Amino acid sequence: MQNTKIQEEWFSKGEQYAKEINEMVDFGEKNGWENWKGKEPEDTRSHLAEAVFNLLKTANQNYDTETFRTHFPPAHTPIIPLMENKAQSIEQLQFIADEKIVFMTGTSYEKRQAYLLDHDRVTKLDENIQAVGKSKQDNVFAIATDGKISIYKGWAGELINEFQLGQTIESGITELIPFNDGSKIILVTSFGIYLISKNEERLIHPLNEDNEEDWTPDIDMENATLSHDNSYIVVGDQSYDHRILDANGNTLGSIGAQSSYPHFCLFAKDDSQLITNSCHFYNGITIGINSDQYVGADIEAYTESDDYTIIDEEMRVYAGTAAKNYYILGDAYGYIKAFDKDGNQLWRHFLGSTISGMTLSDDGKTLWAAAHSGILHKLKLDQGRRDTHTIGNGNHNEEFRLLIWKDEPQIWKW
């Protein structure tokens, strides 16, 4: 009887909260937030969180999560108190094949753990893995272990290259991006961004252009990307504008921040456009330039111009992926949003806390998105909504979410 009361309260309050939030956001986007006079909706279910979490654990142990999911649609806000000291970042999500991905828990300065997710089965991988990266094309994977980066053709496939690290050996790895043929790697760290080849570890960002004696390459908000055809590299960080480089690391152009700090960059799937995001606190601006501008780009900071397209004027982007004709971007507030190349928002979908990573299946139908909450979400895009508790206006079905928390005896499926 007690469980029935909990279930009824969880369901009815959650449904009402999602309805009110969706109505408020729809109004704000259409009419301007300054015209919203209503009260901000409140999710009042946090007192149920512990009981619901215990029921979730029982459902996992009884292999009955589908029934549980129907009665207790997942939510983020009520379980925030449970995350305290347990949440962790989930990063470096890489699609492998079918319904299989690899991902890391922990940030670059923490002890990390790699996992394989195959459908809904999670397998812990070698604890010596420090980072995992994937090429933009041709399924080449890079795996960093102690002092070494190994390059494989396909996941668990043939070893095609190996790099012994020298000067970068102590650097925590923010991101690894191997070239499509496995010949080189972009190594992104808070001690600089490097182009790694057999012959050298070349610092490509930042550059000591004034030859200052006490200069160091330490950076914050370090970010980089590689075009899908590997012709162009883009690098940036909090203190330096985004620069476009050729495949050998030579500067071709620069893109000034339209908000305060350069924070994220990504090429369109066909490399026809490059988007860069700069942020200020929890907000930001994303702009796009076309491929005929990459060589010689000179976008002035904080300046309106016909040389770029405004993609979005709200998000501080932490993670993103390029679908066939659009981008999916994840922000500081826990939203993922889709935009086309002209800056039209196609949909938005709320997951929870700051988005820390995402990867998309090759057919563009399945998205895995992770957050600093220590939760990994698997979404079937445009497959229809699963329940009335979805916050957002996308037509997506969240197949499940995994609670990958510190100090828990297992990973919980919801």
Q: Which stretches are poorly predicted, pLDDT < 50 over at least 5 residues?
A: none
Computed over alpha carbons, the radius of gyration is 22 Å
Helix and strand content put the structural class at mainly beta
Q: How many individual domains?
A: 2
Order of strands, main sheet, comes to 13-14-15-16-20
Mean pLDDT: 96
| N→C terminal distance | 22 Å
- CATH-assigned homologous superfamily of the largest domain: YVTN repeat-like/Quinoprotein amine dehydrogenase
CATH topology of the largest domain: Methylamine Dehydrogenase, Chain H
CATH architecture heading of the largest domain: 7 Propeller
Instruction: Give me the count of strands.
Output: 30
Portion of residues within helices: 10-25%
Q: Which percent band covers the strand fraction?
A: 35-45%
Biggest β-sheet strands, sense, barrel = 5 strands, mixed
The top level CATH class name of the largest domain = Mainly Beta
Work out the helix count: 4
- Shape type: globular
Description:
This protein is mainly β and about 425 residues long. It folds into 2 domains: about 1-70, no CATH class; about 85-205 and about 215-414, Methylamine Dehydrogenase, Chain H (7 Propeller). The protein has 4 helices and 30 strands. The strands form 7 sheets. A 5-stranded mixed beta sheet has the order 13-14-15-16-20, with no helix packed on it. The chain is globular and about 70 Å long. The mean pLDDT is about 95.
